[in-house]
């Protein structure tokens, strides 16, 4: 009992101390436009300079990826959140990425994941009907091939390797990737035809001037497409931590909303989202892709970034520990939270204050 009281008093004292003598620090920044945005589409001949990006799928069309028209967005964060502190130092307190709809009343708002089988051919025995109109807009980590990486792929870099003549199935240099805790990845470009299970990092919620749109309604021009990147899965959290450590966040905005007849939608008109890029004249009006970030850079066991390792952090730790294969409370950097991490947590908890 007296121990508890002593600890409580000490905690109050240390909280005051932490405010003035913090080795840990919280960094907040809002980016009004990205360092790069690039429509990833085989027939884009204005690589990086295009003023809008159409998001659509070419499902089961030989020569094309299912996720065909995508938007790669990159923010360079090193000037605002110091890079190179080691993955475990980065605690994402909040992160929101927003892009804005360029076309008017062309697709419906779907805020919920659809079963993958709803994208199968209707003749497929596993096919199920989509319960709500359109497909959600998704965001994925970026995977690379042909020697490219987040450090080397710029918005004017080539779309893909062999085959060099579009369309270029399985050849895009940047692709949406499904990661595990160890950051081994699967290219999800052909998720439908390969019937790959796996969810995106987040699906978008859509907002207009008077709040969130009503699901199932047509989406007006200028609508905010908002992705909440805090509370993402363990593997995606590790991806974001690594990105902050490298000073480069790269993400792909995609959808499985199908099209036919190319970006113009053929004779049926456009039925998929188009997104403003930073090169669009409307970008100066606030329609460029944007990122708001609040990140604590602190000791590994301080999960809420207040520079103390206390009961709040213990509660957070236990949640990951109970999941076993969860990397969000990983303290020794092996990609899982287990007894080895618990031993490290106890030491940090006893120390209370981050260095
Ligand atoms: Ca661009
Ligand atoms: Ca749907
Ligand atoms: Ca803490
Ligand atoms: Ca571990």
List keywords for this structure.
Type 1 dockerin domain; about 350 residues; about 15% helix; binds calcium ion; eight-stranded antiparallel β-sheet; about 25% strand; alpha+beta
Give the helix proportion (percent range): 10-25%
Q: Multimeric state of these chains?
A: single chain
Runs in which pLDDT lies below 50 for 5 or more consecutive residues are 16-22, 261-266
Number of helices: 4
* Rg from Cα: 22 Å
Shape: globular
Domain count: 2
Ions, cofactors, ligands: which are bound? calcium ion
Helix and strand succession?
Answer: HEEEEEEEEEEEEEHEEEHH
> In what range is the share of β-strand residues?
15-25%
Total beta strands: 16
What value does the average pLDDT take?
90
Structural class estimated from helices and strands: alpha+beta
Query: Mind summarizing the main beta sheet?
Result: 8 strands, antiparallel
The N- to C-terminal Cα distance equals: 27 Å
Structure in words:
Helix 3 (311-323) packs antiparallel against helix 4 (339-351). This protein starts with a helix and ends with a helix. Strand 8 (174-179) and strand 9 form a beta hairpin. It is 16% helix and 25% strand. It has 355 residues and is α+β, with helices and mostly antiparallel strands. The model is unreliable at 16-22 and 261-266 (pLDDT under 50). It is globular and about 65 Å long. It contains 4 helices and 16 strands. The chain has 2 domains: 27-296, no CATH class; 300-355, Type 1 dockerin domain, CATH 1.10.1330. It has helices at 2-20, 234-246, 311-323, 339-351; strands at residues 25-31, 36-40, 52-54, 56-57, 67-76, 90-100, 137-144, 174-179, 185-187, 202-203, 205-208, 211-212, 224-228, 248-255, 274-276, 290-297. The strands form 3 sheets. Strands 2, 4, 5, 7, 8, 9, 10 and 14 form an 8-stranded antiparallel sheet that branches. The structure holds calcium ion (4 copies). One calcium ion binds next to loops.
């Amino acid at each position: 009992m007296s121990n508890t009281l002593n600890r409580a008093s000490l905690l109050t004292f240390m909280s005051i101390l932490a405010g003035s003598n913090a080795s840990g620090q919280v960094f907040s920044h809002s980016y009004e436009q990205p360092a790069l945005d690039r429509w990833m589409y085989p027939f884009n001949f204005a690589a990086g300079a295009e003023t809008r990006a159409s998001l659509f799928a070419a499902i089961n069309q030989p020569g094309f990826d299912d996720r065909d028209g995508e938007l790669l967005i990159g923010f360079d964060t090193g000037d605002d959140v110091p890079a190179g502190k080691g993955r475990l130092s980065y605690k994402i307190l909040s992160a929101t990425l927003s892009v804005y709809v360029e076309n008017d009343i062309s697709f419906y708002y779907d805020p919920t994941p659809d079963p993958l089988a709803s994208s199968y051919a209707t003749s497929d025995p596993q096919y199920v009907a989509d319960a709500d109109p359109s497909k959600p807009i998704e965001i994925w980590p970026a995977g690379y091939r042909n020697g490219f990486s987040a450090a080397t792929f710029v918005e004017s870099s080539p779309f893909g390797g062999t085959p060099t003549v579009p369309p270029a199935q399985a050849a895009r240099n940047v692709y949406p990737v499904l990661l595990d805790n160890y950051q081994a990845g699967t290219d999800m470009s052909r998720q439908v035809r390969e019937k790959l299970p796996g969810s995106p990092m987040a699906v978008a919620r859509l907002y207009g001037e008077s709040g969130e749109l009503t699901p199932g309604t047509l989406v007006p021009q200028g609508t905010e497409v908002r992705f909440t990147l805090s509370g993402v899965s363990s593997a995606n959290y590790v991806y974001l931590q690594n990105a902050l450590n490298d000073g480069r966040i790269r993400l792909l905005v995609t959808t499985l909303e199908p099209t036919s007849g190319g970006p113009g939608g053929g004779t049926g008109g456009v039925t998929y989202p188009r997104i403003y890029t930073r090169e669009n004249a409307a970008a100066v009006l606030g329609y460029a892709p944007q990122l708001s970030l609040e990140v604590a850079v602190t000791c590994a066991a301080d999960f809420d970034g207040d520079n103390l390792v206390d009961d709040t952090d213990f509660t957070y730790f236990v949640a990951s520990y109970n999941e076993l294969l969860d990397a969000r409370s990983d303290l020794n950097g092996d990609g899982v939270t287990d007894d080895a991490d618990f031993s490290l947590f106890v030491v940090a908890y006893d120390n209370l204050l981050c260095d």
